[in-house]
Structures are given as structure tokens and as C-alpha cells.
Amino acid sequence: MHKLTKLNTPIFWAEGHPGSLKRENWQIEVSGSCEKPGIFTWENLLALPQKEVKGRLTSVTRWSVEGFWQGIPLSEILQAVAVKENCRYIRFWSINKIYDTSIPIEIANKEKSLLAYSFDGELLTEDYGGPIRAFIPYLWGYKSAKSVVAIELMDYYVPGFWEKRGYTDSGEIEAGPCRDLNDGGKIKYIPDGEVLKFN
Ligand SMILES: Nc1nc2c(c(=O)[nH]1)N[C@H]1C(S)=C(S)[C@@H](COP(=O)(O)O)O[C@H]1N2
Ligand SMILES: [Mo]
């Protein structure tokens, strides 16, 4: 059983579960506001610098799960494609291109923003956005698009799947009660902003 399943992490696929996905021939197309758009194959992705960060995925439905997420810093992708100066948002597209969401480039460039493929040393399964997903611990979980197939570098903002349905465009984490999945789902209190620890 996956570590995330053991922690009772909910599995969200608003557009429908994609079924089984192949890691080896996975690729991510990067397009838009950059000098070197192109396709990153799985090998291309693994040739970039990798990183492991401790962080929380925190849902607007008020649960949070912490662990070590491993992947490629989004800043490395932005650097590899030579992002243009007028680029302001990075837009993720999930498998089947029904689910999308965008984050400001400043947040993509933060140290813990990753394209992540593992949690606590276990590769992410399709349930949790494998082979590779966005991990953006600074914002509500709906910004962490799962099973990413494309990244669009945008000069302007467009609301994504959940943003069009009423979730905030900024995705800023708001204070309030939250279930800590690492502590049996106990309800604790979180302040505004990235959830670093519970009170
Ligand atoms: N493609 C896709 N990505 C998605 C979602 C989704 O429904 N589809 N849900 C988002 C929401 S609201 C949250 S909180 C997290 C949950 O991640 P998990 O399903 O791995 O627990 O994924 C985000 N990424
Ligand atoms: Mo969520």
C-alpha cells in the first residue's frame, strides 16, 4: 500500500481517474513564453537537477499531509526553456487536458515548488498524480496538478478547472481548522500561508 494511502490521503480526480499510465514514455510539453519550447521526455526530466523537499500538500477541503517529495525544481524547467521576461504565470495541464491550473512564476521559482514523482521514497502511483505532478506546498492543493502532460508559459492569467468553479485564483492558504493526516486526521488549526506546522 502506498504511504499516502496508509495516511488516508484522499484521491481527487475531478475529471475522472485516468487509469494506468506508463512512466517510461511519459513526456511533458513546455510551450508559450520562452526561447526554447520543447518536449521533455522522462530521460530529459531525469537529466535535470533533482531535489527532495519536506513539505505539505494542503487541500482547501481542509486536510494536510506532510512528507518528503522528490522531483525536479520548477525553476530548473524554467531555466532550461529560457523563460521570457514577460512570462507571469505557469499553467499546468493534467493528462487528457481537462484539468488545468496556473500559478505565478514567482511561486514556481520558490525552492519547494517541484514536478514531483515520489513521496517518502515511493514513486507516485496514478492515484496520487504519477508518474509526475506539480507539488506546490505554498498554495492550496488544487494548484498541485496531477499527472502533468503540458506546461504553458503565460503572459496573463487564465482561471483553471477549480478556479472557474469558485476556488480562488490566488490559491492562498487561509487560516482555519484542518485535519492533520500525519496525526490520524486530528483536527488542528492552521494560520494563513504555507502550512509549516500545526498549532
Ligand atoms: N488532474 C487533477 N489534479 C488535481 C486534482 C484533480 O481533481 N485532478 N485535484 C487537486 C486537489 S483539489 C488536491 S487537494 C490535490 C489532491 O491530491 P491527491 O489526490 O494526490 O491527494 O490534487 C490536486 N490536483
Ligand atoms: Mo483540494
Automatic annotation (TrEMBL):
InterPro entries: OxRdtase_Mopterin-bd_dom, OxRdtase_Mopterin-bd_sf
Domain of life: Bacteria
Record domain Oxidoreductase molybdopterin-binding: where: 20-162
Name of protein: Molybdopterin-binding oxidoreductase
Transmembrane segments: none
Gene3D superfamilies the record matches: Oxidoreductase, molybdopterin-binding domain (3.90.420.10)
SUPFAM superfamilies, A to Z: Oxidoreductase molybdopterin-binding domain
